[in-house]
Amino acid sequence: MPELLPGALLAGIISILGVMVWRTQALMPRLSFTRLLLVGMAGAYLVPAAVTFLANTWRNQDWLPTLPIVTPAAVFLGAWAGFAVLFVGNTKAKPRRVPLWAGALIGLATAILLPPLLDRLTGSYQRPSLRADVNHCTRGMLGQVQPREVVNICDEPIVVGLCLPGEVNPKPCSQSSNVDPGQTVRFDPGEAHLSSLPSNPNGLTVVACLPPARPSRMLSVTGRGYDGVCIPAG
To answer: Using one digit for the tens of pLDDT, what is the confidence trace for 66-109?
Structure first.
């Protein structure tokens, strides 16, 4: 069985919802749970692979404009907006007013335009704009109270950052290093210890990113403690 790509679960869920909306608008009978499950599994495998292939093909063409980077959180916002418009605009008591392509277009516009708008309004990078944390590519970073040495165990370059108290998104970590495969980098945590609850919420954080994303940190979703995050290239 092929390996699932990042975003596979979200792609499967969106595939199921998309098929349900399409069949409802086409006045077709509902699919059984088993068939919907198969649709979700197919979407989880095929959609991320197709998107990755098309994006790579696009980027290899020098004459085409640069594609915007859309994170899974932004895709979730776009999917929510698109399905909300379709469900609200196409109730059973009214004739269909919003076609499927219009809902998809609204969702795409939301996924691309809303995150940078939120960033501009708040003055810092919000969750939908954050890039993936590739901490699985490191050894010596996770589980350490005071990380001092990190090795890149993946086959691609990464950038690793150690953020001390006071360094907060949109400011990148001052201790950030590009790390080639197999390379080791060293940090100086000073007297700071890793951020943890409830004893040390304002401690240091560590994070690994794929360039050109930059390591930074921000408040956790609970509002206490800090998470290492990857912010867009600035």
So the answer is: 778 889 899 999 999 999 988 887 766 566 678 888 999 999 99
- Please tell me the distance from the alpha carbon of residue 138 to that of residue 39, in angstroms, as a whole number: 35
Read out DSSP for the chain?
-PPPPTTHHHHHHHHHHHHHHHHHHTTPPPPPHHHHHHHHHHHHHHHHHHHHHHHHHHHT-TTSPPPPP--HHHHHHHHHHHHHHHHHHT-TTS---S-HHHHHHHHHHHHHHHHHHHHHHHSS--GGGPBP--GGGEESSTT-SS--EEEE-SSS-EEEEEEPTT--TTSPPSEEEEE-TT-EEE---TT--B-BTTTBTT-BEEEEE-TTSEEEEEE-TTSSSEEEEEEPP-
Q: How far apart are CA 7 and CA 69, in angstroms?
A: 14
> Sheet containing 158-163: which strands, arranged edge to edge?
175-179, 158-163, 205-209
Alpha carbon 27 to its chain centroid, in Å, reads 35
pTM of the model: 0.82
Question: What is the average pLDDT across 209-222?
Answer: 93
